[in-house]
From TrEMBL:
Protein's name according to its UniProt entry: Nitroreductase family protein
Annotated signal peptide: none
Entry keyword annotation includes Signal: no
Alphabetic keyword roster: Oxidoreductase
SUPFAM superfamilies: FMN-dependent nitroreductase-like (SSF55469)
Annotated family: Belongs to the nitroreductase family.
One Pfam family from the record: Nitroreductase
Amino acid sequence: METWDAMRARRNVRQFTDQPVPEEALDRILEAGRRTPSASNWQPWDFVLVTDRAQLVELAKVWQGAQHVARAAAAIAIVAPVPEDDRRSAILHYDLGQATYAMMVAAADQGVGTGHAAALDQDQARAVLGFPEGHFLAYLLSVGYPSDKPLRVIERLDRRPFDEVVHRGRW
C-alpha cells in the first residue's frame, strides 16, 4: 500500500480474527515506532510486544476501554519514563503520540489493524509487563487482522469538513 493510502485506510480496529500477525510484520511496525522523530532525539519510549494470550487478557485490565487487547493477535505496550516536570511531560506525550501513529500507519500499510487504549492501572501494567520503577505504561496498541472487513481507503470519512478544520494565515 502507498503511504497516502495507508493513512486513509487506517482506522481503529477493535475486533480481530484469530490469524497471527507474522513476526516480520510486527518487527516492521515496531521499527516504525523506533524511527519516529523525537524532541532533541530523546527517544523516550520502550515498546513491549505481547503475543501470549494469557498475558493479553491480563493486559486488557489496565483500562476500561482496553478490552480489545484481550482478543488481539498482539499488543504493543508503549512504556516511558515518568516525566520530571510539566515541560518534559508535554514533550513526552507529543513524542509518544508520534510513535503511536507511526506504528498505526505502518500496520495499516501491511493490512494489519490497530486499536489504541490508555492505561490507568499502572500496578496491573507493571505486574504484566515487568517494566522498572520510574516508568509507566503510556498507551497500548492492539494489533491484528480486522474481523469485520479488511483495511481499505475510507471514502466516507467521519471527520469535520476540510474547510472547517483548515485555516489559512489566520483563524
